[in-house]
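Box 3.1 A note on notation
Throughout this textbook, protein chains are presented in two layers. The first layer is the amino acid sequence; the second is a token string describing backbone geometry. Keep the layers aligned when reading.
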Amino acid sequence: MPRPQRSEQFSPEEICYVHCIQRCVRRAWLAGVDPVSGVDYSFRKEWIRRRMEALASVFAIDVLSYAIMSNHIHQILRNRPDVCAQWSDEEVAIRWLRVFPGRRMEEHLAEPTENDVKTLVRDKKRLAEVRRRLCDVSWFMRALSEPIARMANFQDQCTGRFWEGRFKAQRIIDDAGLLACSMYVDLNPVRAAIAGGPEGCRFTSAYDRAEAQKGEQVDSAAFDLKPIPTEEAGRKIRETPVDDLRKERKAKRKNPTGRRILRDAWLSPLTMKPNVLSGEAEVHSGGVRSSDRGFLNLSWEDYWELLCWTAKQSVQGVKAEVPSRLAKRLAALGIDVSMWRDLVWNWQRYFGKSACVGRPESMKQHAEQTGRHHYRGQGSGAACFA
């Protein structure tokens, strides 16, 4: 069965949950310790994390969960056309121009000016297309992958591909699939024997949330959403020495807004607010993410407890009961509690080749809506759900 088209899996016009996987070319360890040369490229994981953080501040896309491994990355993204619809034309223009200004100065993207913003706002047809792209998962992944490849190739003094090809996407269609997939993503380093538990899984969303609970802060990578006055930009280029400009841009890339934020502030909140209607956009006004909407009917404490419990069930065949309070939560989502460990640890067996993730009845319903007979994984995954 051929891979489905992106337009069949998700649309910028509707809110969708998508699990994205992007692999390095030939699955080489280009973001870890290369087993052949012994060169340590682990610092590139921070490149990727900061780029994700920066894009979360401008795109109408929520980053729910992520894990950056040595040769691939996982993300669970949710596009928010309802949030983008609340932004003014000027906001849309500066957000887009921060990522795609259309010109370069040496190897760095140029700073958008007030004149650039006004020009884009006047072009209504172009602006409508830009507004749509800011809600598109494919454009988010493009804006993430291309600069990382450019930086790595420049560092290695080589050309060619850094990423294997287009990213793999799985549409998540219900709460059960979302919880299981989020746990699978957060536990990727544990499954790979890189860490013994979630508390040691650096470069994962669970680690960021846990450290933020302790009050850890980081320099914000969010874009500065204020355009530069046109006259000031011209004067700088004419009068400032190239070396000084280079140093200034380098310093600004480390912390564009000069702010420090909690380590997880750029991620979508985990817990949904019980008193907020599902139709409310919950637009974020702090400039580090698109919205303040959570994605699970689960508190952080319960999520962390279940994550740590699942991480300990690494030995196949060893039976241990899920804590009763958490077992009730899983049962309410339609998950077979006795199969929870198997579902998370053997995710690839059930949904590794599927374009859709969720309970069998949800997958069947979505297949009918998209003109398909079924999705791969629909039958094998049935054993994990009540």
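Residues 271 and 294 are 5 Å apart (CA to CA). The chain has 17 helices and nine strands.
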